[in-house]
Amino acid sequence: MITQERLPMVAMPSMNDTHLEDIIIINKLSKAIDAKDAGAVSLILKELIEHTVVHFSGEEEMMREKAFPPYPVHKGEHDRALNELRVVAKNFQSAQNIEAVKAYVETLTPWLIQHIQTLDTVTAMFLVNGVSPCSSGAC
Fold first, then answer.
1. What is the pLDDT of residues 29-57, one digit of tens each?
2. What pTM was estimated for this model as a whole?
């Protein structure tokens, strides 16, 4: 479980709102795992995939519109994370292994925090201020 206080904030309120939605769904998934409710786990995994697709595609669209220089790196991480989530969900559908989903969630939360603190923070600064992270040699 992750609390809202642990969630890093970025320069774009809309991104912060989306990240809050992420943790609400992740926490709901954690509760279903703890309750060993396979039906709920399955439904919440689907919800998490749908939310993540919208989350990532929205960020990617903003990055493309503003010609964000490290777009390929950020998009690549989105693609990797979404693929991993889809594999976990597919494996759960066939094996119903709640412990495997629990292990995934235990890695997802730190990944999300790290992703927000790094890629999303830089992206939001660029989208809001037009400041390229590449101008300081960060690319």
1. 999 999 999 999 999 999 999 999 999 99
2. 0.92
Residue 1 lies in a domain: no
Token digits of residue 126: 């660029």
Non-local (6+) Cβ contacts of 10 within 8 A are 16, 19, 116, 120, 121, 123, 124, 125
Q: 36 in a domain, yes or no?
A: yes
Task: Report yes or no on 2 lying in a domain.
Answer: no
- Structural domain count, the chain: 1
Q: Which of 22, 45, 49 is nearest to 101 (CA)?
A: 45
Q: How far apart are the first and last CA of the chain?
A: 33
CB within 8 Å of 19: residues ≥ 6 apart:
7, 8, 10, 112, 116, 120
Q: Transcribe 76-119 into DSSP letters.
A: HHHHHHHHHHHHHHHHHHHH--HHHHHHHHHHHHHHHHHHIIII
pLDDT digits (tens, 9 = 90+) for 122-139: 999 999 998 765 555 555
Sign of the CA dihedral running 90, 54, 21, 110: positive
